[in-house]
Amino acid sequence: MKFLKAISLALGCLLLCATLSQPASASQWDKKVIVTFDQDTEIPGLVLPAGTYVFKLASINSSRNIVQVWDETESQLYSTLITVREYATETPDTAYFLLDNSQEGYPPAIVSWFYPGENLGWSFVYPPARQPVEE
């Protein structure tokens, strides 16, 4: 009986060490994606002029649903947004942004964002006056 406990403890310690020794990737943790829009694009509460932006999760351990939008050098924070998790039936190979351009007179709005290799993404929440229509 003591032998089984010792073996179980040793295997548990070995598994823990193997898990802790793997290098952490900042982009994996914060889901950082750099994207360039060729036209003005809307996020909740703000229209981003055409250009390059960084989308990533806020470094808050308690919530993985807070997305930050930065300029391309990450020196200016444009917005911090609370999102809702969304499931995609297919797993994207590259970063994927679903845009809604159905409302005339408005720039395309980002409906959701998916990180490469993951089918759980983030859906942006808009005020009731401007809810993008999913296609």
Counting helices, strands and paired strands, the structural category is: alpha+beta
What's the end-to-end separation, in Å?
61 Å
What is the helix content? 10-25%
How are strands sequenced across the largest beta sheet? Answer: 1-4-5-6-9-8-7
Largest beta-sheet details? 7 strands, antiparallel
The arrangement of helices and strands along the chain is HHEEEEEEEEE
What sort of overall outline do the alpha carbons produce when their principal axes are compared? globular
Mean pLDDT equals 80
Return the domain count: 1
What is the CA-atom radius of gyration, in angstroms?
20 Å
Would you write up a description of this structure?
With 135 residues, the protein is of the alpha+beta class. The protein contains two helices and nine strands; from the N terminus they run ααβββββββββ. It has one domain. A seven-stranded antiparallel β-sheet has the order 1-4-5-6-9-8-7. A two-stranded antiparallel ribbon has the order 2-3. The longest helix has 19 residues. The protein is globular and about 35 Å long.
